[in-house]
Design brief:
alpha/beta; Rossmann fold; 2 domains
Length: 195
Amino acid sequence: MAARLLIADDEALIRFHLREVLLALGYLIVGEAADGQQAIALTRQMRPDLVLLDYKMPHLDGIEAATVLHNEGLAPVILLTASASRELAERARAAGVFGYLIKPFRDGELLPLIEVVLARWQAYQARRKEMLALRERLETRQEIEHAKHVLMEQHGLTEGEAFRRIQQLAMRNRKTMREVAQAILLTHQLSSGQR
């Protein structure tokens, strides 16, 4: 399946040229924007696989738009710019830009860059998903541990008994153990606050 791309450049002629080259390479163009704000709005709406952003655009420049897209985890960005300065490269890196192409570029430079960026984005998304799952498991474990200690204190239970009580409440009420632990902790917090 062809990758879905969005092009953002304030110059219509450059957008037209990019569209023609990218279509010839077999990509689908799902949107075009003339400024950074429009690029963000279209990316949120169209959910492209990749966004090509010109650095100098009205309203929001390419780096500011790339920062928003990166922070929201919407799509990888390739920044198109006439500047090869170290400062701009640093800003692009800090914004989460995945690729950087200096104008004027040769059409042949697009395909390898796009394919590498798409592969890096997939790997990045997989790592991010894994990290979020690990964080979720850690937070769940911490809340269950805390809830166990509350039950042990309040009811004189052993650690194993407290764990089984949480398990049984979860099964009986068709809730996750984390939801039960959160309810125990909330109840404990409310009762402690009333004293």
